[in-house]
Amino acid sequence: MTSAAALSAPAAAGPVPSATPLAVTAVGAVSAAGIGLQALGRAVVEGIAGHADPTGLSEESLPPRPVRVVPDLPVAELIGRKGTRHLDRTTKLALVACRLTLDTYPGRAGERSGVVLGTSTGSIRSSSEFSMETLRQERPYLVNPSLFPNTVMNCAAGQIAIRHGLHGVNATIAGGHLSGVQSLKYARNALRQGHADRILVGGVEEFCPQSAWGWHLSGALGVDVPVGEGAAMLMVEQEATAFDAGRPVLARILACETGYGPRGRLADALASVVTAALERCGRRPEEVGAVSYGATGLTGLERIEERGVRAALGGRTPGRGVRVKESVGECFGAAGVLQIAGLLGAWRHTAAPAGELALVTAVARDGNVGCAVLESGVLA
Amino acid sequence: MSERGARRVVVTGLGAVSSAGIGADEFTESIRAGRRTTSPVRSFDPSGFPHVHAGEVHDFEPRRWLERIDPAHWGRSGQFAASAARLAVQDAGLAADDLARTRAGSAMGTTSGESAVIEELVGAWAADGLKSLSPDVVGSVPAGRIAAAVNSELGLTGEALTLATACSASNYALGYAFDMVADGEAEYMLAGGADSLNRWAHAGFYRLGALAEEVCRPFDADRSGILTAEGGVALLLEPYERAVARGARIYAEVLGYSVNCDAEHMVHPDPTSIAACIRAAHRSAGVEPEQIDYICAHGTGTRTNDATEVAAVREVFGDRIPPISSIKSMIGHTMGAASGFGALICCRALYDGFLPPTAGVERTDPDLGPGVDPIPGRARDARPRIVENHGFAFGGNNAITILGRVA
Predict the structure, then answer these.
(1) Nearest-CA distance A154 → chain B (Å)
(2) ipTM greater than 0.90, yes or no?
(3) Do A231 and A297 fall into the same domain?
(4) By the CB < 8 Å criterion, does A189 face chain B?
């Protein structure tokens, strides 16, 4: 074996293959702004704060800070009554977003469809309550076995597949704030490899006292920034597939790039993935007309994100800035796809013409950075 | 409409943190000997549980293996993953700087993420309420910290992707990493998985009637279930051309993989869907069933799994079922890391020339039908050329990888 010294000049990294554009052909969202894309779009554009009363969502006391929650989750109307008794809120939110998306999808989902669902830690409420039962019961094993599947992070993705008969790739991406762009990148590869013909790309996060206290105590979120919840989903397919079927393209996904930066170099790392993403799709920084920001409200990271984006765009701040969290609160594993849904909702609400170029950015404290490049399509 | 990447992809480094030892050599030696390394749980208080055995990594000292990250800021699963990745890079004869200078990233699988961290917080909640949660510990909860730990430990600037597709997650990660290297999206990828023992899974599996009392014996007529387990595993992937150019030891080539979803039931696997996944994996690798020399089974040791798995294999292979064994008989079910440990032992089986055994098989279950060879007891000397590695999961998430010896 050669010594490491022989590698002092590692084989130069070859050219990265060009990215194939994907088409978004349906979108659904459920958040504190309400049910559906229209409610989200209006809230984002008009700066409306979402529903803020968490009554009924927690038997535990909640931390003294604002929250944003989904007012009335229409479970019975949208996913039926059958087999929902043991589902947790994470799975219900995901199923509702899925139903809303499929309802607007002009094609048929079916067997050759997949699911790529972003999360932070699954339902932290389900796993911690299940764990708590092992301490509280007379015997540690006297837990309710019907609730056990809820403690596993891929529960929601599995339930979506079961309810809609989706046999394609079924992946759960634990990306936290990066879930949106990481899920899109994962889905792009899965479509390219033929693991499905179309993929529901989503993200989900439920509001619960465990995570509310976690955010409150961690100091990671600004003191006045609400803890939120929600789910959003996009139907994503190869552009050619959508064209051939005559399905309107709501937006094109031109690139999604991810990277990892060392502590203290996060803005640079973000700037370089933004630059790489634009290069991958052959667009220039000055063409960017919108940014949907991911780090809104995150202590220290909000400025890093703005700095990184500005650096990549040559010091310019694009005219349209979407900050979905101002309406729906901090939604962690759902934040990334809500950023995209919020952008699409804003495009629709303002009747934006096709062809507006947008960045969707994300940055996390551990070092993860990401950027997707989208172009508005037919949103009327 | 599948588009295979242009580059061949090989495995040149292996890292393991497990009850069977730390490092791929210790792990492999233990498995070849058919040694059972499960034992009574010590990492949580198992009193009150009728069954207390598990595949625990006793006395794990992260500081011995980690060079860059401070274990105090990372959960047990992240520590396992980062340690295994560090070991894999060393095993590949690379300095971490070699990876940091190029496009290198990680894809790690998990079932329960940082479950030990969550249970530490549940302990605080039980004692003093949610307002007593420690901010430092809270920061270690997100499951995505597992791949992040790998990138931070090795200074990688590429993607850090944590796949939470439960017990097939490492195979999902391996398949994705394979595509990234084949396509030229990455020059190196660390692929694997990590999970920690936790009370809640122990309780859950016990209540489902799936937990063995003391011995996990897949394929045996008297098998009684799984043993929960923990650990971390990492495989270093790079393009074949560069591995040859740098004179690297090549354990195996990743030939292909497939993923699909039963979409039937959360906990009962479906043989038809698994058979479809096996066939798709063969197509992806460009191999025929008769070319498969060995199957590293999902082999959990429950009656349902083993019967379903053998039925699926029979559907594809007909009467000639390749030797099929389960390393879970020795290390237990390491959950999100399980198919990663399977991939690791497949690499060593191809490189060293053996078939891994199933420990504890006294009488192969006749209900599984004729022609099932679980390689009972100890490893068998052999020269497998192409092997198949199974991973099935909660939610019907199947993932199968195909690995081959590089001549």
Answers:
(1) 5
(2) yes
(3) no
(4) yes
